Amino acid sequence: MNDMTPPVAAREHTVESFTREFLRELNFGRGVDLDRASANDKYMALARTVRHYLMTGWLETLRNQYRDQAKVVAYLSAEFLLGRQLDNNLLTSNLEGIARESLDQLGISLDDLREVEIEPGLGNGGLGRLAACFIDSLATLDVPCIGYGIRYEYGIFKQAFVDGHQVEKPDTWLALGSPWEFPHPENAVTVGFGGHVEDVTDEDGVKRRDWVPASVVNGVPYNYMVPGYGTNRVNTLRLWSARAPKAFNLQVFNEGGYEEAVKNQTFAENISKVLYPEDSTPQGKELRLQQQYFFVACSIADFLCNVLPQDFDLHRLPDRITWQLNDTHPVIAVPELMRQLVDLRGWTWEDAWGVTQKVFAYTCHTLLPEALEVWPVDLLGKLLPRHLEIIYRINELFLEELRDTYPGDELKVRHMSIIAEHPVRAVRMAHLATVAGFKVNGVAALHSELLRDKVLSDFAQLWPEKFTNVTNGVTPRRFVRIANPSMSGLVTEAIGDGWIKDLSQLSRLEPLAEDAEFRRRFRDIKAANKVEFARVLKERDGIEIAGDAMVDAMVKRLHEYKRQTLKLLHIVSLYQRIGSGALPLESVTPRTFVFGAKAAPGYALAKQIIALINAVGSTINADASLEGRLKVAFPANYNVTLAEKLIPAADLSEQISLAGKEASGTGNMKFALNGALTIGTDDGANVEIRELVGDENFFLFGMSEPEVADLEASGYSPEAVYASDPDLKAAIDLISSGAFSGGDRTLHEPVIAALLGEDRFMALADFRSYVDAQDRVEAYYGDFEAWSRSAILNVARSGFFSSDRSMVDYMDRIWGAKPVKQNF
Ligand code: OX2
């Protein structure tokens, strides 16, 4: 890049200029005139117009970065659950008003065009959405960052319900093209797979190991703008798409071997074909390991060869970069960097390891033992033979160090080894990340404590300084400013708009919780948001809900530990008690129970739970006597777009995992920031939410983590709980009787059997306490002034949960990277 090239001309922020750009894009970019343009044409032209306005910032950010060589954060993540881009890009380019007016003049509705965008669902849930929030915050804070991931051709599956059962359909998000991406096939990176390792001696007589892969795949980078809010900085997200280096074999094709001719192409392109629909449990799939290595190898090669200047001395790498490992998915980056330095650049092992140990930091997102990734050495060795050798060597040296520190303690050595011996020989990726990383962090205070004291306790004893916490956060731009424009307007009117970049300023709303007029306006906005949510549900799903009932929301992946079954038992119990006359119908607050949840396709029990929720929902919704009182709404295919409608409308946020199982949760933060009250256990970030918003503004229930551990140790019997609680027994018996399955007693039996048999996540044990807390919810909701006061205090006291704050914590505690202001 030449410092003399003039900066690309900034577009003028006027309606006329915007209209000119838009029409030019429509005519010259799409080749259509306004009269004949389809909605997609108009959306594409609009998106490209917005892109132009961000371009100066993007190119200048790149140019400045190249010149200053400031320290960069490379966020390595197999998932980025971005959500729709248009609104965020309109906001950050400061074009919201201008675009609306320009389109209005052309007789086009901006709101209609928004609906055209298909969100890129390149993530499963919290982990992927967190990555998206983090890159948004880093850009906003002016921190140099590159996000590295995979451009899946198909994102998280599209969920449909057939007779209440989940059916998965491919997510064809690219079918109409994506206007936000910049492909660069000329910068493709080559990645090897399989083959063998040889000893070679180079001209200087130096011996080294040389990996000869059996096949190679090209990684084509697709760049996306990541614009900051209130700054000119536009960072980059680089997602890799896999391609075959040779398109196909023409000779074989001409001889009629059509399938054979494209075999290589199929192998290569399968790698970035589809996102694994898993959340927190790994699927031992070869393709998944291929994906992990693919994007990590592309990203490391890209950074070393394309991002850094050519003459850069890699010994100084730790001054230039931290690779943040988003869970264990990218941990194969560790042996890959070692290979780059030792095999390809001839470094000594000691030098390479010295640098490697200073550039990786590891974020762990789970506590479930089954979610800690482990790769059988047979598989890893077949796919990446040289990497396995390197891992063995890292482990050998690590175990030597352990034996020095703990002489004779072979049990400890075995526990800590990177290689597990049972049930099969396998690489423990979390151990590899902990050994190689200079920092290991959990994602909420309780989670980091449990990581340190339980899951990785041996490592924490050995290297206490490595372990730290950074509590998760969410971007206030998307989840407050954009999703809840009316509340944002009210807040801005009260305290100015500084909160959008500094969410701690929300605390200035506190006194207004005592202001009756402010409470009334706050309530009116919530009411209007409910009406809007009801409209969306009707249009999107054909589901009709009352516009004024309490909105009680449980939205997250379906997993036993999250305990959708507990919520369901509460609903069934209400229904049963109303039906039996134990609970007078008039005393029940009108409520809509909203569920949103996808189950991993291979997780049979989770799918059965979905079917049961739908069955209970159909029965309750069909019962005319409950009309206007109880309603269950389970829209299929919950995603970021729907979240942005639901969250601002919610009154009650269900965060009811068994204590010690949810690492953090981030939905909990989004709800609190939009004035919903939480009913929750002392788990994950709920703990911090409750501390901040205050006990009186939070409905706590259930066992604490130590109580769970005690009960586990003393022997838990779900049968005994069932037998001792008549309401619980009645609810379960009602399901077993076939009341929700047309008399069929077998249909939902597996769910009941799981609860009465093992009840791994102790839903029954917490049932009574949960129902009591729900009774408190009902009573409190009746006092609408008190409820509004608590809702406002939830907003005012949740500023801590901005992902901007998380990023400042990462900078202070882990990265040492600093903001670099853009001066143009
Ligand atoms: C999720 C965790 O389950 C959730 O608690 C957390 O808020 C989120 O990550 C972001 O940190 N896969 N998904 C997660 O962990 C794993 C593994």
From TrEMBL:
EC numbers, comma separated: 2.4.1.1
PROSITE patterns in UniProt: PHOSPHORYLASE
Transferase keyword on record: yes
One of the GO BP terms on file: glycogen catabolic process
Taxonomic superkingdom: Bacteria
A molecular function (GO) term: glycogen phosphorylase activity
Requisite cofactors: pyridoxal 5'-phosphate
Function: Allosteric enzyme that catalyzes the rate-limiting step in glycogen catabolism, the phosphorolytic cleavage of glycogen to produce glucose-1-phosphate, and plays a central role in maintaining cellular and organismal glucose homeostasis.
Similarity field: Belongs to the glycogen phosphorylase family.
Name of this protein: Alpha-1,4 glucan phosphorylase
Species annotation: Demequina activiva
